[in-house]
């Protein structure tokens, strides 16, 4: 059940199950009117999705010259389309590279945890679309309960050297 | 349908009447709530701005007209060509069985046309007919398996299946995934054991596996050979076949999942025949995976209603061109190599295309009739494993465009002739067993002749840019710059770098592609996504005497077109 105040869950990636099919990207694209917010990291021959971590102290918010980015009451970093001027300062500021350089209609795409679905008690689209269950929406400190190792931030797996 | 997993597709109304994908429920849906990128593209396809909702006629100049007028005009052309025995009809096999049956019966019975065929991707037809009466299983059996042998990159061709396989092999300590492929794709990266075979030798290895299991695979063109000779030819260890049989037998209910899109390179029919022997020995159950969701259903309907195999249809038109060609729902000109299509369509006086989107075929057509998309029709499809699955229409077609069955009824209303039987066509009684063609043949492994062996590769695409693809059924709407992928040593040897434009020349055509470099592609091999952009001309079609159409094998030369700098 998603809490009304303070979203504690985050999108967590299980490296052991991600096949890099990019269905998460397609889901994000079509669910956000053509502005996808799922970026990719390439590790050797593998492609893994990376999504916004909704940082506690988001550098993107600090960098934005027009205050288009702000952290709302539920802890989600939101972008105002009206205020965004497409300067890409947030792209440069994000230490995780999850804000895409590609602008759509001169706006930098930004993950909003599918707030429309959260309000309806549903999970974000990328998680719903994931064909292998690699993307999960859960509290980060709970992943070890399922036998997974927290590798870094929101990436989990049984062993960082097991696959690929 | 998008692919043979037959995922539950649904759309919700979005902003500005856009259709956005809706997610099937995790419980109770066929694919447990999962929906890959291809399923998402349905919404883009359904709501695409270029959808055809009116009719067009080309008579010196092209003019828009009402569908009713175009239907009347088309009916006259069809009637006259039928009387002169110079008519050919091709029906797309992506629609539900009921729709395909109505369209085929209109052509066979009302028009009395003998040159009628149903189009499914050639590799699908090869695979299904090559399997014959081998025991096949559906998706739910994968969940019960502990050992899965994947032939071809099934994780790339059918991403939703990957979740089922990972769940299955993770349930037990003995569970494992084995993979056979000619490049290192997504599946092989997850496999406990991967068998990287030389392109064109997949069937030979499968035949060896069947023999190791005690079967005598026949009729597929792979002679028995010593393990040493097999090893030299395939590039895998001598003990590979026995090892695979041992792994499959180690756990009950093992499954072999096979997905061999065209151009992968040995004939899918020959591979399937070898696999059938494995299945008949009880070593494993077979899960065939097709590009088209209703390949088996369409082929079964075609057989039941006396349509000819697609290969025979092509052969006939190559030797005796038709004056009028009617294409219902299929973009044959966009799918097949240019040379063969020029021979078939070049001699036609009139091409009538019923389509939901502009395509290469509609560009050639003299009469264009709007048609509902397959996702806008309801009915029954038959999965490759023979399961009957009911589907509802996703959304109404724009402008009330008719389904193939409705169009057939409209055309029939203007043409006198025998009563059609398909009104009473009963899918529940449809015999889904497909006749096994005689003379199945393995394709000889291509000899590079100074160049590279080409294989098709489904992994490379750029998402999520929308656009239009001339691809086969599994990718309907995707704009993607086609790439040629070489290993790093080969690229360096040619003085090429990632991003260079290269000209790839095959026996039947050439294309300018962007180069990507990946050591997932072995030395001497070039991989390219077949069907995207102009790559279709690089893979020749072989029209076989048994009615099957083989695609590949092929070899190619590569030179720089221009540097990336």
What do you see in this structure?
The complex is a heterodimer of chains A (164) and B (565). Chain A is α+β, with helices and mostly antiparallel strands and 164 residues long. Chain A contains five helices and eight strands; from the N terminus they run E-H-E-E-H-E-E-H-H-H-E-E-E. Chain A has helices at residues 23-31, 59-63, 89-93, 115-119, 125-129; strands at 10-14, 39-43, 46-50, 69-71, 77-79, 135-138, 149-152, 155-157. In chain A, the strands form three sheets. A four-stranded mixed β-sheet of chain A has the order 6-1-8-7. Chain A has a two-stranded antiparallel ribbon with strand order 2-3. A two-stranded antiparallel ribbon of chain A has the order 4-5. In chain A, a hairpin with a 5-residue loop joins strand 4 and strand 5 (77-79). Chain A is globular and about 45 Å long. The relative contact order of chain A is 0.25. With 565 residues, chain B is α/β, with parallel strands linked by helices. Chain B is 31% helix and 20% strand. In chain B, the strands form six sheets. Chain B has a seven-stranded mixed β-sheet with strand order 4-3-14-13-12-5-6, with helices on both faces. In chain B, strand 19 and strand 20 (510-517) form a beta hairpin. In chain B, helix 3 (97-110) runs parallel beside helix 18. Chain B is globular, with a radius of gyration of 23 Å. The two termini of chain B are 42 Å apart. The chains are: A alpha+beta (164), B alpha/beta (565). The interface between A and B is medium-sized, with 27 and 34 residues.
Task: Sum this structure up briefly.
Chain A is an alpha+beta fold. Chain A is built from five helices and eight strands; from the N terminus they run E-H-E-E-H-E-E-H-H-H-E-E-E. Classes of the chains: A alpha+beta (164), B alpha/beta (565).
């Amino acid at each position: 059940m998603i809490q009304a105040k303070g979203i504690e869950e985050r999108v967590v990636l299980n490296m052991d199950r991600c096949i890099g099919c990019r269905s998460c990207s397609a889901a994000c694209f079509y669910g956000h009117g053509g502005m996808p917010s799922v970026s990719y990291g390439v590790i050797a021959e593998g492609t893994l999705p990376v999504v916004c971590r909704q940082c506690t102290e988001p550098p993107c918010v600090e960098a934005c010259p027009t205050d288009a980015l702000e952290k709302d009451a539920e802890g989600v970093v939101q972008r105002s389309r009206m205020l965004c001027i497409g300067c890409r300062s947030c792209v440069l500021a994000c230490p995780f590279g999850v804000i895409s350089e590609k602008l759509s209609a001169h706006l930098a795409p930004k993950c909003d945890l599918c707030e429309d679905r959260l309000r309806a008690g549903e999970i974000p689209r990328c998680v719903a679309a994931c064909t292998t269950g690699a993307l999960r929406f859960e509290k980060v400190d709970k992943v070890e309960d399922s036998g997974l190792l927290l590798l870094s931030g929101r990436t989990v797996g049984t062993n960082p050297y097991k696959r690929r | 349908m998008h692919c043979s997993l037959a995922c539950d597709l649904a759309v919700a109304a979005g902003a500005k009447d856009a259709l956005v994908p809706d997610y099937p429920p995790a419980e109770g849906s066929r694919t447990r709530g999962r929906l890959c990128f291809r399923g998402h593209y349905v919404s883009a396809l359904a709501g695409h701005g270029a959808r055809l909702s009116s009719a067009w006629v080309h008579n010196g100049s092209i003019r828009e007209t009402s569908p009713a007028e175009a239907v009347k005009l088309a009916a006259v052309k069809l009637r006259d060509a039928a009387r002169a025995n110079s008519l050919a009809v091709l029906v797309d096999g992506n629609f539900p069985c009921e729709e395909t049956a109505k369209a085929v019966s209109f052509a066979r019975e009302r028009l009395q046309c003998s040159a009628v065929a149903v189009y499914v991707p050639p590799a699908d037809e090869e695979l299904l007919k090559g399997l014959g009466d081998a025991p096949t299983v559906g998706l739910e059996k994968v969940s019960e398996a502990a050992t899965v042998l994947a032939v071809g990159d099934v994780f790339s061709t059918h991403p939703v299946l990957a979740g089922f396989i990972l769940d299955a092999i993770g349930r037990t300590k003995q569970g494992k995934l084995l993979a056979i492929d000619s490049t290192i794709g997504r599946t092989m990266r997850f496999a406990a054991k991967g068998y990287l075979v030389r392109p064109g030798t997949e069937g030979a290895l499968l035949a060896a596996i069947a023999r190791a299991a005690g079967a005598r695979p026949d009729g597929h063109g792979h002679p028995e050979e010593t393990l040493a000779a097999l090893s030299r030819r395939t590039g895998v260890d001598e003990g590979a076949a026995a090892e695979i049989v041992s792994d499959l037998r180690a756990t009950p209910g093992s499954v072999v999942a096979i997905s061999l899109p065209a151009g992968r390179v040995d004939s899918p029919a020959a591979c399937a025949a070898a696999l059938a022997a494995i299945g008949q020995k009880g070593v494993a159950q077979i899960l065939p995976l097709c590009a088209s969701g209703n390949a088996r259903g369409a082929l079964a309907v075609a057989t039941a209603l006396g349509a000819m195999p697609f290969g025979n249809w092509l052969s006939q038109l190559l030797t005796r061109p038709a004056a009028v060609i009617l294409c219902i729902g299929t973009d044959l000109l966009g799918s097949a190599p240019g040379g063969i299509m020029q021979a078939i369509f070049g001699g036609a006086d009139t091409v009538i295309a019923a389509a939901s989107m502009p395509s290469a075929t509609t560009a050639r057509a003299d009469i264009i009739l709007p048609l509902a998309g397959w996702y806008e029709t309801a009915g029954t499809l038959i999965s490759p494993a023979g399961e009957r699955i009911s589907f509802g229409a996703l959304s109404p077609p724009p402008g009330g465009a008719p389904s193939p069955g409705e169009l057939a009824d409209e055309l029939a209303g203007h043409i006198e002739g025998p009563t059609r039987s398909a009104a009473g066509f009963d899918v529940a009684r449809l015999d889904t067993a497909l006749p096994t063609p005689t003379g199945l043949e393995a394709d000889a492994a291509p000899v590079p002749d100074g160049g590279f062996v080409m294989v098709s590769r489904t992994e490379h695409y750029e998402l999520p840019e929308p656009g239009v693809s001339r691809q086969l059924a599994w990718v309907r709407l995707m704009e993607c710059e086609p790439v040629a992928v070489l290993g790093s040593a080969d690229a360096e040897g040619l003085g090429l770098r990632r991003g260079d434009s290269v000209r790839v020349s095959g026996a039947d055509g050439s294309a300018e592609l962007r180069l990507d470099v990946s050591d997932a592609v072995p030395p001497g091999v070039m991989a390219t996504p077949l069907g995207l952009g102009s790559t279709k001309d690089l893979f020749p079609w072989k029209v076989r005497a048994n009615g099957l159409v083989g695609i590949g094998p092929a070899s190619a030369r590569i030179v720089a077109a221009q540097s990336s700098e």
